[in-house]
Structures are given as structure tokens and as C-alpha cells.
Amino acid sequence: MATEITVPRLGWTMEEGVFLGWLKQEGARIKSGEPIFVLEGEKAAQEIEATEDGILKLFPTGPAVGSTVMVGALIGYLLAEGEKIELPAFAARPHDHAGTKLPPVPAAQSVEVPPPHTHLSEPDANRFGREAAALTISPRAARAASALGVDWAKIRGTGRTGRIRERDIMAAAFELERETGRVQSAIPKPEMPGRMAPISATRRTIARRMSAGVHEAAPVTLTIRADATNLLLAREKAGVAGAADGPRPTLNDYFVKLVAIALQLHPALNAQWHGDAIFHPDEINIAVAIDTDNGLVAPVIQNAAALSVEQIGTMSRALIDDARNSRLTPDQLARGTFTVTNLGGRGIDFFTPIVNLPQCAILGIGRVSREPVMLDDKIVARQLVPLSLTFDHRVVDGAPAASFLETLVRLIESAG
Known about the structure:
By secondary structure, this protein is α+β, with helices and mostly antiparallel strands. It has three domains: 3-79, CATH 2.40.50.100; 122-179, Dihydrolipoamide Transferase, CATH 4.10.320; 218-413, Chloramphenicol Acetyltransferase. The chain has helices at residues 122-128, 130-134, 139-148, 166-179, 201-215, 229-241, 251-265, 309-324, 330-333, 398-413, and strands spanning 3-6, 16-22, 29-30, 35-40, 45-49, 54-58, 68-70, 74-79, 219-227, 272-274, 277-279, 286-288, 290-292, 295-297, 300-301, 338-342, 361-365, 369-375, 378-392. The protein is globular.
């Protein structure tokens, strides 16, 4: 019996990915577990393995390298020896958000569609029909249409085979708002020389997550300064003692460790908002924001509280190398419960980091600067570090968040 090859979901929010090419030729004999194609999901590319043995059968009009494919799209088959199958002209067969398959569009069916984003008269709407549109709208677009009050049966999709995508719904909503006068002004097209840069899949993922962190959460930011003088001295001593054992941990590695300890004492900051309940993970997994040529990524140091600073440093260096060489896997980006982002190297003091949902908090670390402070009734020079904690007020209140920062400051100032 033929085994379907479909586009898998590589991340919890993934609705579509970028097809990066087949690793095997048409007619190749495939073993279960053998990589057969490459898919780019949310910030990472991954080799997708076969789930069964078989002979690879591809669609003549299958996805091109670099094309966008929806989660659940049918892109090929694995056939038994001597088995034949009649390939439909329309290959993509989407899944809905819950994983239930929608019926495929019949190969012989021809559907007339109106011009893009045109609002039709009632007779025209009846002529084009909802049933045809229902077969070509993505789950994300359907949710957007419901939220924005857009009649998607009157929209022509820009996706493959006319599939209605979220961008089509957003464009139609904007046109509707402008027509009804609810939008007073619109961003005009550029009137100066320049170029339009296409938005990458990574950039779209970053935009979607950052927007969610602002619009779906209730973000609040608290700031404080910590005296990092003792922490810097402890790092210097550790570097001298372990000089023969390889690179010493960075200051950021120490912060990851101390944050993990503070989260053990304040687990509310490690919690997550999930619909009608607050989820409390049994693990403390620290995501570390890394700037790359392709955009911001946040690979995760799993079980950080149980690791030494040296172990965290080794893992951090490996993750940074993988991130900057586009080798991160979905597993390296998964299961984060708290994020640390450091802009101190860019000369930034305080800033407002954005929560990476479903996490409820993120710590921003600024530059360490030598400043005069009062200590034992004397003015002395100390190394101060600014800290900015953004948290989701739906999950945790201000007092527990402030207590977490107080504990973190004590840990930093008593280090060594």
C-alpha cells in the first residue's frame, strides 16, 4: 500500500515551511529512517526522514526548491515493489490545525475566481461559492478571517492553486477598512529611489512571535542595576585556574546559571499561559538570544540549573556556532521556559525585551560599566550591570517578578 509523504510540522506554531529540495531521485529505493528531503521550518532547516520502506514516487508538478509548502501538503509517495499509483493533478492536501485532513480538490474540477481582494455582489458570491473556497483556505487564514470579520469566499488567494493565505486576509481587511472609512490614512508606496527586499521565512517567524509577545501577552518591564564586581572577579579567577582546559565561560554563561538558580526559587517566572490554565514546567530550560545574518534565534540550554557554568559555556559556544552557520535543528530551539538576551556588547544599558510566548518572562542584560557608588560610607568604583525583566502580567504579578529580580541581584553580588 502506498505511503504518503507529507510536510511535517517542525514547530508548535508552524503552519508552512520552505521546501529546500529532495535528497533522493525519483525511483530510488528508500529505507525507513533515511533522509529524503530538506524542509526549513521556524528558524531551522531539517532533513526529513522516511517513515516506511519503499520506492520514491514524486509528483511531476511537485514543490520547487525554495517554494512555500503548507503543513500536511502531500508531496510524494513511497510505493511497494511493482505497485503503481495514479497521481492526481493537484498534489497539495492540507491538514487543519487539529491535524484532521481536509478533502482534496478533485483534479477535474475547474473553479472560476474573481480578481484579487475584490468584494463581490451577492450573485457573484453565490456563483463562486463557499464550498470551493473552503477547500483552498489555510487554517491560519481561516482564523484571521474569523477574527477580522472578512468574508473569505469573496477573495482570490495568492497561494499555490489559488489557496487563500493569511496575507490575503490581511490585505482584504485593510481594503475593507479603507472603504468603510475606519482607516484615516495608509502607508503610501515609496516615492524615492530604493529597492524592496523580500521577507524571509525567518523574518516572518520573528515578526509573528514578537507581535504575539506584545499583543497576546500583557507585558510589563522592570529595571534594576546589580553590582557585578564580585562576579567579574570570580570569572577572572576561574579563567586563570582553568586556563589549560579551554576557553573560559563568558559573563553571559554566568548569567544563564544564576537565572536558572533564581528560577528554582521563583518558579512562577518559569510558568506559561496556556488557554484556560497556567502550565508549570518541571524543567528549567534557558533560551539564549543570538544575532545571526539570517535574524534572531534563541537556541535552548536544557536543564540549565543542573549544569555547571563550564558546561553551560561549552553548550553556548556550540549553539552559537550552529546558529551562525545555519545548522540549528528544531530540537535545539524547542522547550525553552525562559529567555536571556544580552545587548551589553552593543553599548546598550536598559531596554525592553519582548516575551517569547508561551514563556512568561525574558531578561535583558545591558553593558557592564565602571561607576562610583557609596559603599560603607565611602565612594568607590564598582562594576554595575543594568537588568531589564519583561514578564507577562497575565501569568505573574509585579511583586513576584520584583522578588525574582531581587534574588537575581543578590546572586550576582554574592558570586565568588
